[in-house]
Amino acid sequence: EKSGYDHYMLKEIHEQPRALRQTISGRIDADAGTVDIEVDLPAEYIDSIEEIQIVACGTSNYAGRYAAELLESVVDVRTTVEVASEYEFDGGRDPWRTLVVAVTQSGETADTLSAIRRAKRAGARTLAVTNTLGSTIVRETDDSVFIRAGPEIGVAATKTFASQVATLTLLAVHVGRARGSLSYGWARELLESVRKLPNAVQGVLDREDRVREVAREYADSDAFFFVGRKLGHPVALEGALKLKEISYDHAEGFAAGELKHGPLALVTEDTPVLALLTDGSRPTETLNNVKEVQARGAPVIGAATADGDGEAAADSTYLDVELPVPVTGALEPLVANVYWQLFAYHVADEKGRPIDRPRNLAKSVTVE
Ligand code: M6R
C-alpha cells in the first residue's frame, strides 16, 4: 500500500505523473485543439454563461484560484472564487447565466455542499469537479467531471491538486473553444502542455535529493514565507498551507507585491522566503521582491524555468530549482508546486511529525 514509502503523502507526491496521465487519458485531441471531459454542458448554455463562480475549501480552493486566472485569461469569462463557507448567491446575478463549480477532492466537504445547495436554491446551474465517484457532490450537482487521481489517503492533498488544476485547464479549453473565445493555436499550445505535465512533474521529482537537503538545512527556521504573482500566487498559498499542516510551522503565502505592505516587517535571516519565479508568474517583477527580502538577510529558495524569463532571477537566489521539462507558462507554476510539496514533506519529516495524520485535521471535513 505505501509501496516502500514512509508515508502516504510521499507516495502520493510521487504518484503525480501517473495520476496526471489518468486525468488526461483519452480527453485531449491536441491536433484538433479540442477536449472531451464527458460533461454534458450544451453549446448554447456555454455560450450564454456570463459568470463562473468557483466554490471550494483549502487546497481545492487554491486549485480553483489557479483555474480562475486561466479562465479569465484564456476564456474571457468573468470568474470568481470563493471559500465555500463564505459563499452566498449574489441576487444581482442572473442564475441562468451563472455556472457554479464546486471543486472538492472528497465530494463530501460540508461547507462546499452547503454552498452548492445555496446556488441551487437560487436557480444556478452547478458542476462538480471531484475525485470521488458516488460522492454526495456528484448526486447534488447537475453535472460532474472526475479528476481521476486515484485514492488519496494522506490528509495533505497533493496529487489531487495537480489533477484538479489539469482537469480545470481542460474545462477552460472546452469552454473557451465552445464560446469561440480561445483561438485554435492557443488551445493547441495549452493541450500540448497538459500532455507534457506528467514528464515535467517527473523532472521535478527527480530532484528530490536537492530539495531534501535544503529542507533539512532550514527545518528549524522561525517561519516561512511563500510568494508568487499571478498563477504563482495560488501556488504560494498552497505551498504555505502544505507546510503548516504537516510541519506545524508558521507559514504564510502572499502575492509577492504585498510583502512590502506589511509582512516584510517579519522578514529576518531566520525566515526563508520561497519564491515562484517560473513563467506564468511574472518572474521579473517578483525578483524585485526577492531583492527586498535578501536585503534583510532572508534566504531565498527560488523555483524558475530553465531558459525562462525567471532563470536569471533564480540564479541570484539561494536554491535555483529549475523546471527541467518546460511546459507553457500557464502550467509552470503547477509543476513548480511539486517542489513546495517535497519541501513541506521533508521539513515535517525532519521534525518527526505524523505526516499522514496531522493533529486536529481530518481528510474530509464533514461539519460546517
Ligand atoms: O475534499 P475537499 O477537496 O473538499 O477538501 C477541502 C479541504 O478540506 C482540503 O483541501 C484540505 O485543505 C487539505 N487538508 C489540504 O491539504
UniProtKB/TrEMBL annotation:
User: Which part of the chain is the SIS domain?
Assistant: 41-181, 214-358
* Keywords, ordered alphabetically: Aminotransferase, Cytoplasm, Glutamine amidotransferase, Repeat, Transferase
Does Transit peptide appear among the keywords?
A: no
The reaction(s) catalysed by this protein are: D-fructose 6-phosphate + L-glutamine = D-glucosamine 6-phosphate + L-glutamate
Q: Cell inner membrane: is it a keyword of this entry?
A: no
Provide the active-site residues from the annotation: 363
Subcellular location, record wording: Cytoplasm
Give the primary localization class.
cytoplasm
Tell me the first and last residues of the signal peptide. none
Cellular component per GO, a single term: cytoplasm
Subunit field text: Homodimer.
Q: What role does it play?
A: Catalyzes the first step in hexosamine metabolism, converting fructose-6P into glucosamine-6P using glutamine as a nitrogen source.
| Descriptive protein name | Glutamine--fructose-6-phosphate aminotransferase [isomerizing]
Q: Which organism is it from?
A: Halorubrum aquaticum
Residue numbers of the full-length protein present here = 240 to 607 of 607
